[in-house]
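Readers of this paper often ask what the protein records in our data store actually look like. The remainder of this section carries one protein's record, kept here as part of the documentation.

:::
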Amino acid sequence: MKSILVTGAAGFIGYHLCSKLVDNGYKVIGLDNINDYYDTNLKYDRLKQLGIPKSKASQFNLLVESDNIPRFSFIRLNIQDRENLPILFSQQKFEKVINLAAQAGVRYSLQNPHAYIDSNIVGFANILELCKNNDIEHLIYASSSSVYGENKKIPFSVEDNVDQPISLYAATKKSNELMAYTYSHLFKFSVTGLRFFTVYGPWGRPDMAMHLFTDAIANKRTIDVYNNGNQERDFTYIDDIIYGMLKIIEDKNPKKESLYNIGNSSPVNLMSFIEEIEKNMGTKSDKNFLPKQPGDVSRTWADVESLKNDYSYKPSINLEKGVGKYIQWYKQYYL
């Protein structure tokens, strides 16, 4: 049985994707460097759900099998490792590669730009080279809604011009799209880019608004509300993201070059989002209203018509249901 490589497997989306893929009968190898951009305990706990204890997951360059989940293995490795990554590819004969490994975060890119170049540019170039050299049928990779910057036209369409990114993170994701297109054009393997729109849900990243607001309310801290709350986000529950990704992974004849928005296509005002969290937490929050942060965009809204047309994508979890599911998990994990 040929296997699927999922990079960023200890991350939020990567963990959920690996879990669903093995449930659906795929052989999956997860890869992650488990960096300390945020608490590594959360990453190790995600891997523990996949049967990989910390004692095994913490060792670099060692492929280990899950203790209790058939068809899942994990390796701790950097995608910018030009010595060991090619060995993994040559040994495993992957059929498809899903590249979710990246240095995430808009605001952090102002503080540590080199982390974004190393992972998102150098690392992605390594993935493309190895897909070319190992006859990978299909590369699916993570882009971001951040590439739209302060696009005035709504909803955001993949046909829109995205030549004015307002953060280095967004610039690296735009670069990934260009790099993937070039490799597909030159070397004739299929590439599919996914522009994710504000994904949230259980096991979510602690640097995202969903966690920051919930955790502050739970611990009676003031929450920082940027741009005085005048922001809108196309919040998308993780199950809808994974549902869409599975549709693409299962495609036996994908297009050579494709790019999709993947989101809920239903933007929510930031203050309404906070109110929904407060309702589920059973208490009001103290708010500290602040100016807009450098690199932040005012609104996001995904036009998902092309994903609907090509893959019958249809998000089904609204904000009320999604926030409720997240808060339930948060209380079980953190409290």
User: Anything to note?
Assistant: The longest strand covers residues 138-144. The CA atoms of residues 277 and 323 lie 7 Å apart.
